[in-house]
Amino acid sequence: MLDAPKNRPTLPPEIARRRTFAIISHPDAGKTTLTEKFLLFGGAIQMAGQVRAKGEARRTRSDFMQMEKDRGISVSASAMSFDYGKYRFNLVDTPGHSDFSEDTYRTLTAVDAAIMVIDGAKGVESQTQKLFEVCRLRDLPILTFCNKMDREARDTFEIIDEIQEMLAIHVTPASWPIGMGRDFLGCYDMINERLELMDRADRNRVAESIRIEGLDDPKLAEHVPDDLREKLIEEVAMARELLPPLDPQQVLEGHMTPIWFGSAINSFGVKELMEGIGAYAPEPQVQPAEPRQIAPEESRVAGFVFKVQANMDPKHRDRVAFVRLASGHFQRGMKLTHVRSGKPITVSSPVLFLAADRELAEEAWAGDIIGIPNHGQLRIGDTLTEGEVLRVTGIPSFAPELLKVCRAGDPMKAKHLDKALMQFAEEGAAKVFKPMMGSGFIVGVVGALQFEVLASRIELEYGLPVRFEPSQFTSARWVHGDKAAVEAFTQKNKQHMATDNDGDVVYMTRLQWDIDRVARDHPELSLSATKEMQ
Ligand code: GDP
């Protein structure tokens, strides 16, 4: 197998063996099944079916989780660690539903690569495309797994062409399928010149590899019937002529994706994909930050919060901040500086996510994801260091596309609403705006489903029924500029002004025309649809 090129100084071995990635896919393509097989081969679970079974046991705990189940979506993301060969994989789960794109975007800031799973019969679907675009913004390396080859799938060249055309990325076959649907035999591993045959009898067994000396090896005929063999030889010759050869550097730069074909449910192709992640997905990467970037090999620990999840355990009002370590060797009990507040925090009970269980993390390295339980001090975008004032950049917050007024169903409990909404704002689940004029809160989300999620969580976690009513506004823009200019503008436009949950000034309107007018009449200000979390 080719070694990935080194474009950076050699990393300490513990860091160099880490691969931190997410899976992107359209719902139903097989992300859960593939995750389960990863964990199975990574030794993190004993039996396929556990991920789902555990998920369901957890879900029955509350109505909110029930809603997740009914709609077949996963609202909460988590991170899972497991070993495979010499590698330590950190798989960060992305929420599957398009309504949670902002969360997904931030999750993708915490990984070094993405695995794109597509259904062999359906090709590139809408959600795959959207998520791919997000990866592209960061030039994330992408490895592709074409799943469900045990069913009638599309022609192999057609699938590859579709990816190349729709996603504008070079595709190079790492394996080539032999037959499809009921005749699917397995794959020819184009990197290692191996024959991989699928075992239909045992879904959890890893296929045996048969080493062959190229496609004219007589051993091929022992395993592959004549018609499929001829087709395979012809197609591989054509693929080698028409498609670009695997170039690890191009993969690292996000310009080329190697594609493996397989069937997650039959455990087929998964092992090759895992080897591929080890070989072609990058080591922990340099993290953009101010005033300087953070390199993974630095001896001091630095990390950033990319997700906050509240009430993971409904009995405790705790939150878990998911921190991606950007550098160093973390040890339990370490005292880190919370850069935003300048305060020290002692990380005494960090959590590592091994499969579906939480475990205390005694140590972790750059590239790992740890969970830090806290009472709300840690927010998305926060940086933790061993004292240096660094601020990780590139974790955005988007202007919500949907705004509604939130009212307490029970006026006696209205004061809890403030607290509940602030909590969800800190989690990044919603934006909360306090208008200058009038009472109440305006809540902004990126996807409509989030209103329902919020309403059921507020009721469940705070015992407070709420209503979301239409708002007179449809757009919110952060106002940037000189302090005096922002203040003068605010005073003149009180009806439109609000502050967000961080106290930043926001202009709200229902007309794009208004936004254009402000831009024209107030060159000293800028209105923006994103702000960096800090
Ligand atoms: P997700 O929505 O992307 O997480 O997809 P799931 O992993 O839940 O899979 C969706 C459906 O496809 C389930 O019914 C799986 O059993 C099925 N499935 C997953 N992988 C395969 C496969 O390789 N072959 C076939 N035939 N079905 C599969």
TrEMBL record:
Protein's cellular compartments: Cytoplasm
PANTHER family: PEPTIDE CHAIN RELEASE FACTOR RF3 (PTHR43556)
Protein's recorded name: Peptide chain release factor 3
Every Tr-type G domain range: 16-285
Protein's UniProt keywords contain Lipoprotein: no
Function: Increases the formation of ribosomal termination complexes and stimulates activities of RF-1 and RF-2. It binds guanine nucleotides and has strong preference for UGA stop codons. It may interact directly with the ribosome. The stimulation of RF-1 and RF-2 is significantly reduced by GTP and GDP, but not by GMP.
UniProt cross-references to SUPFAM superfamilies, sorted A to Z: EF-G C-terminal domain-like, P-loop containing nucleoside triphosphate hydrolases, Translation proteins
Keyword DNA damage annotated: no
Binding site for GTP: 25-32, 93-97, 147-150
Gene: prfC
Species lineage: Bacteria, Pseudomonadati, Pseudomonadota, Alphaproteobacteria, Rhodobacterales
Transmembrane spans: none
